[in-house]
Amino acid sequence: MNSVITHQIADNLFLIRTIDRKLKYFEALWEVPEGMVYNAYLLKTSEGGVLFDTTKANYTEPFLEALRDLIDPKEIKHLVVHHMEPDHSGAMSAVLETIGDHVQVWGHPFAKRLIKSLYDLDPNFQTVKDDTVLEIGGKKLTFRQMPWLHWPECMITYIPEDGFLFGGDIFGSYGIPDGIFDDDGDDLHEFLHLAREYFASVIGHYKSYVNKNLLKLEGESASPKMILPAHGLLWRKNPAQIMDAYTNWANGTPVKGKVVVVYSSMYGFVEKSIQVVIDDLEKRGFNPEILRITDEHRDDLVDILGQIPDSEAVIIATATYEAGIFPLMAYIIDEILHKVAYEKPMLLLSTFGWGGMVSKQLKPKLEESSFHLVDVIEIKGLLDDESREKILAGVSKLVDAIHSP
Ligand code: FEO
Question: Phi first, then psi: what are they for 343, rounded to 5°?
Answer without folding.
Answer: -80, 70
